[in-house]
Design a protein that fits this description.
The chain has 251 residues and is α+β, with helices and mostly antiparallel strands.
Length: 251
Amino acid sequence: MDRILEFLRNGIDILLIAATIYMILRFLKGSRAMNVLYGLLTLGLVYLVARSMDLLAFTELVNRLAGVVLIIVVIVFQPEIRRGLARLGVHPIFQRVFQANEDIVREVVRAAYRLASKRDGALLVLTRQAGLKGISDSGTRLNSEVSAELIESIFNPYSPLHDGAIIITNDRIVAAGCLLPLSERDHPKELGTRHRAGMGITEESDAVVLIVSEERGKVSLAVNGELIRDLSSEQMMRQLGILMAGIGEED
């Protein structure tokens, strides 16, 4: 019996370690900090080889620098640590069921493709479980009903709010002209600040973002730090409806 319990404990221990490593690699995938991780892994392998060969001077040096390296790692990986903890808090395990109004999704998609046809850039952020109060506070409070006409007027090039993003929460346009955090991952050069901002907020929360490119006149969908491009309005309606219904999410 004791052997069985010991086997189960060891199995659970290994699974937890594997899950933790998987989550860390997933959070760091595509980020600049990934290169730092590769460097640390290389140093770790060299350290193990040095210990096996009894290279006392080198191993003693690494041991003394371990505390400093830990502090450096926390500083370098601070954005990834923040994003990881934020994403953990909105993991489906902790989420309640949410359901977006179908009419709201239709109005948002209609506005996005109208803006694209006029080549007016836009960022439309739809929140899900995670709140974005800090982001909405950076803009102008509206608390307005969602309509395609209002969204189009906000992103009119002559509007003072057209450069920022709008935040839609609980079927209301909470704020406009909001500043979004830029993605720190490596992306194709043709993706400008607007796309990096749209992906950045989805790296730190479970929000869904429609990005309208004024250069290409196209609408893209950002979710979980990834970009889905060149969707038709019908495909966008279907994809956004699934995401906002709380089923078939990213992963």
